Structures are given as C-alpha cells and as structure tokens.
Amino acid sequence: MHAHSMENMQKFYDDYLQPHLCEIADSVTVLDIGAMNVNGSYREIFSDPKFNYLGLDLAAGNGVDIVSDSPYHYPLPDNCADIVLSGQMLEHCEFFWQAFTEMLRVAKPGAFVVLIVPSKGYIHRYPVDCYRFLPDAMPALARYGSCRLLSSWRDEESEWGDIVAVFLKPPKRREISSPDIDATVQGHHGRHYIEFLQAKISSRDAKTHLEIGTRDGASIAPLNCATLAIDPQFNLGRNIIGNKKRSFFFQMTSDDFFREYDPEYLLKAKIDSAFLDGMHHFEYILRDFLNTERYCTPKSAIYLHDCLPVTVNMASRDVNDVAITGKFAHWWAGDVWKLLPTLKKYRPELSIECYDCPPTGIVEITGLNPANSVLIENYDTIIEEFSSIELTPEALQLFLAECNIRSSAI
Predict the structure, then answer these.
(1) How far apart are CA 292 and CA 397, in angstroms?
(2) pLDDT range class, residue 236, cuts 50, 70, 90
(3) CB–CB of 143/235 below 8 Å?
(4) Cβ–Cβ under 8 Å, residues 277 and 337
(5) In 10 A of CB 397, how many CB atoms?
(6) What gap in Å lies between CA 348 and CA 244, rounded to an integer?
(7) Rg, C-alpha atoms of the chain
(8) What whole-number distance in Å separates Cα of residue 301 and Cα of residue 367?
(9) Of the chain's two ends, which shows fewer C-beta atoms within 10 Å, N or C?
(10) pLDDT score for 38
C-alpha cells in the first residue's frame, strides 16, 4: 500500500459514497480482495458504522477476515457484497481476468467494483509480479466482464502511475417473460420497455430499424428486420443477429457515425423505426433526434428512452447524483427529458406519445418531417435555453403530469 493508492480510494469514497451516506439505512458490505495490511489498509476509509468491512486474502494476517485457498475462487456466496475493492493486487495475480470474474460473481447486482493497479514501477514480487496496466485495460475488462465502466483515471503523481477504475455490476433486469414481477419498483407500472418496443415495431411492420446506444443488444435481438446499431462500446455476449438478413454494428459515437456514414445507403431504404438510448445528456439526444429524422419518412417512428424519470436524482446530468440504495438504486436517465419540451416548443406539429414502461418510460414520436430544419437552425439557441434548467420535485411532478403518460398494455 502507498499513499497515492489511499488517496485514490478516498476519491472514490468522496465521489460515489459520501454524497449518499444519508440514504443508507442498512449495513453495506465492503469486500477488500488482497486486504492484508501492508503499510496501510483501505479499511480506515470505510470507518463509518454503516459499512461492514471484510478483508480477504490468501493468508492470515493483519486486516484479513477471510482466508481463501485460491486466488480465483473465494469462499463466499454469489451476490453477497455491495462494494468490492482491490488495490495493488492484480499485478501479482497470474490470471488477473479470472480474479476479476470472481469479484463480479460475489458482487451484488448494482454493486461497485473498484480496482487500483500500477501502470509502471520496479519489479516487486509478492510472490510474483506479472503485469502493468495501461488505461485501455479498464474498458477491456468491462467488456470481458459484461459490466459497466463508470469512470477511470491515471494518477500522474503516483510513482506507480496508478490506474483507478470504478465498475458497476449491472442491476437485475426484469425478465420480460415474468409478468408477475412488480414493475412499480422500477418507477413505472407498465410493460418492460424492450417487450413494449418489440410489439410497437412489429405492429408497424418495420423493414429497417436504427438504434443508438445498443450496448448488449437486448433491444434489437428480438427484431427480424434489417438493423443498424451504433454504440461506442458494445458488450455483446450472445448472438443478437438471429434471422436478420442485414445487420450493421458501428462501434463509435453517433456523432461520428452520422458524420461519416449514410444509414439509408447501408440499409438500402429509409429508416422505418429508430430507438435512441445513447448518452444521457440533452445535447446528445437532440443531435441524435435531428440526425435520425433526416433519414426517416413521414410514416416512420422514433422511440426515446429515459425521458420520463421518476426522481430528481435520476434526472441529473451527473451520474454521481443517482441513488445507490433503495428501489431506484443506480437508475440514471440524465437530462434527456429536456427533449420533450424542446420538441413541443420548436416542433409542435409532431405527435408525441408517452408510455409507462419501467424504469424510465418510452416516448413515441411520429408525424416526422425529414426536410424540417428548425432544430438544426436553432440548435445553439435551444442548448442555451435549456442547459441551465434543473428539475425540482415539484417541477418533475408537473412535467410528468403534462406528459399525459399512457398505459403500455398494448
């Protein structure tokens, strides 16, 4: 352990946990992998009585509560830890990816997994010293472990060039084949958004579909039409092409895609339906909407995700503001809700229907006009007008009431 490592773990605590301590009612289990106190321990950072700190290592010693006889299988049940930490350990682990997989196994759905690893430094065997990590290793681990990389940074002041990464194990997703599950805990009372989208797109007999923010492909897997998926970091763990005769995947930002490619040329037709679920910031979804509409027809439909948040924290631009406990833990919609008042003001001719799909709603927009340039011409004005607006609890309730949210039981 060295001073900079403690400082970086403290930064994780300050950014991700400290703002939410008042929300924590139950004990939070923190599991430290490689916890033996050698010149210091993260345990002192988690001294608040709300944290149940457990140290695991391969040998008994100071700071060790659990001794494991294997670096790749811990004597713990699945989904038992709220936070999993590991600092200055993976470089000493011959098959570090296996250890990372084990960390994810014992982490609860929605849990943080925090790694601190060196990017440089002299050989220091304990009992072996196998690796140094570069920044690209952290997104690669996220893809390997099918989890989300919330943030990552390199400490330039550290003698070891510490790479710090904060991962999120995906929260449990409601299985769309189990209608008896209470969807109210997700924020809305209707059908799961993927099930609803599939039904809507099928009813339109869409021949082509574009999607921004595909990630694991769950939303396009059920479709049989030609699809075009855009995501800067795909995390596909299964075959999602199915019976599709034509399917395109572009691992890049949507801005770069529309700058470099023509979806109509690729799909050999206009876009019949589109699902926008990309970056959770207003300016991004505004650009995604106006860029997508250009390749649609008046009979097309664009579907929006995350535009109907049910808490103020969920609607924050900063992901660090979201709740980390309770029934809305880790749900983040961002401020994409601003697109709805924008369209109502600048494009009043559009038909906008809002549906109660958990967790953060689905919006269907029809009556599109590919030739309309109002949003492009007024883009800077719109951003300036809406960028500083924030929701209060009262404003959120008024916003949702004005959306006239409909039942998704179609």
Answers:
(1) 30
(2) confident
(3) yes
(4) no
(5) 12
(6) 36
(7) 23
(8) 8
(9) C
(10) 83
Q: Both tokens of residue 277? A: 């679920």
Contact 333, 315 (CB under 8 A): yes
What distance in Å separates the CA atoms of residue 399 and residue 232, rounded to the nearest whole number?
Answer: 31
287-332 tens-digit pLDDT: 999 999 999 999 999 999 999 999 998 998 888 777 776 677 778 8
For 164, other C-beta atoms within 10 Å of its C-beta total 23
Give the model confidence (pLDDT) of 151-174 as tens digits. 899 999 989 999 999 999 887 644
Cα 122 to chain center, whole Å?
36
CB 296 within 8 A of CB 270: yes
Give Cα separations from 152 to 137, 141, 296 (angstroms): 10, 12, 37
Q: Which two tokens stand for residue 12?
A: 């994780």
For residue 72, what are its two tokens? 């790749």
Burial of 13-22, coded b for 16+ CB within 10 Å and e otherwise, reads beebbeebee
Q: Where are the beta strands (DSSP E) in 37-101?
A: 51-57, 66-67, 81-87
Q: How far apart are the first and last CA of the chain?
A: 57
106-158 tens-digit pLDDT: 999 889 999 999 999 999 888 899 999 998 999 999 888 888 888 899 999 98
The pLDDT score that the predictor gives to residue 410 is 60
Name the CA dihedral angle for 190, 195, 198, 199, rounded to a multiple of 10 degrees: -50
